[in-house]
Write a structure and sequence with these properties.
This protein has 284 residues and is α/β, with parallel strands linked by helices. It has ten helices and eleven strands. The chain has two domains: 110 residues, P-loop containing nucleotide triphosphate hydrolases (Rossmann fold); 93 residues, no CATH class.
């Protein structure tokens, strides 16, 4: 990463938070930035503002991210590294390289296989990565050819049932209660917890703390969820239970939880017990 960008302006997209944190540790002496679902929305917004400021000023900007950076985030790096993953994810990462066409030549995109890298849970992501690897290694491969993606998705779904839960048959039978029971856009229940990220806007930080105190003593008011959303990190049930000792329900029965554990305002975000799942793999 450092050799490919002597100016220290490069982005690396990893498959999991675990890999991202490992790379951050290796870059400890460098002024790196981090984007993943470990950061609440307000924190990610501030990191993106700092990334854009550094890039516009031609300053050093090393960004270590997970797939969360591929979902509607407009960035433009001269060098992008992408850990091997599904082909559409690789294309999304490539779209963050010389995005605005300001370089005198072409940007550089490197797809690599981390020696000790991990994959998100679930067969679909791994299957996509396997198909992408075979296509990338094939002779004459051209990522700019639309037919490449038609072939990729044909191969990916040739042996996969696209309706495992038989939702379409239930719809034909007008059994909508069972459709609602079986269908989940995102598998796995997630629980939002409020973190105390202290960003540069002290007014917002104080407003968040006042709302937390009020909910604790008098309950939830209309609009509280919206005002607290920038300070929310979503945890899977497994993560929630593993870290239960750090989580407080503000007012019994309200279902509003606050995180009393560690939160790294500078870089890493919420500090969870090792082994937690990574919600960012759900972003397509």
């Amino acid at each position: 990463m450092l050799e490919a960008s002597p100016e220290r302006r490069a982005m690396v997209v990893l498959n999991t938070r675990k890999d991202a944190l490992a790379l951050l540790a290796m870059l400890d002496s460098e002024p790196a930035l981090h984007l993943s679902t470990r950061l609440c929305g307000a924190h990610r917004r501030d990191v993106l503002e700092e990334v854009r400021r550094r890039l516009d000023a031609k300053e050093s900007c090393l960004l270590v991210a997970t797939q969360v950076v591929e979902a509607g985030v407009d960035l433009d790096f001269p060098v992008v590294f992408r850990a091997l993953g599904p082909l559409e994810r690789i294309a999304q990462a490539a779209g963050r390289c010389n995005r605005e066409g300001t370089l005198s030549g072409k940007g550089r995109v490197v797809v690599f296989r981390p020696a000790e890298g991990t994959m998100p849970p679930g067969n679909e992501y791994r299957s996509g990565a396997d198909e992408a690897r075979m296509m990338l290694e094939s002779e004459g491969f051209d990522l700019h050819d639309p037919d490449v993606f038609r072939e990729y998705f044909r191969l990916l779904y040739r042996d996969v049932s696209l309706d495992v839960k038989e939702i379409q048959e239930l719809r034909r039978q007008f059994d909508y209660p069972e459709v609602a029971n079986r269908f989940r856009l995102i598998d796995g229940v997630q629980v939002p917890v409020i973190v105390r990220y202290d960003g540069p806007d002290e007014g917002q930080n104080k407003t968040r703390d006042r709302i937390i105190q009020r909910i604790r003593h008098t309950g939830l008011w209309s609009g509280d969820h919206r005002r607290l959303q920038p300070y929310v990190v979503s945890l899977f049930e497994q993560e929630f239970e593993r870290n239960r000792g750090w989580i407080e329900e503000l007012n019994e029965g309200e279902g509003v939880y606050v995180w009393n554990g560690g939160y790294d305002d500078r870089l890493r975000g919420i500090e969870l017990e090792e082994g937690s799942l990574d919600p960012s793999y759900l972003i397509w």
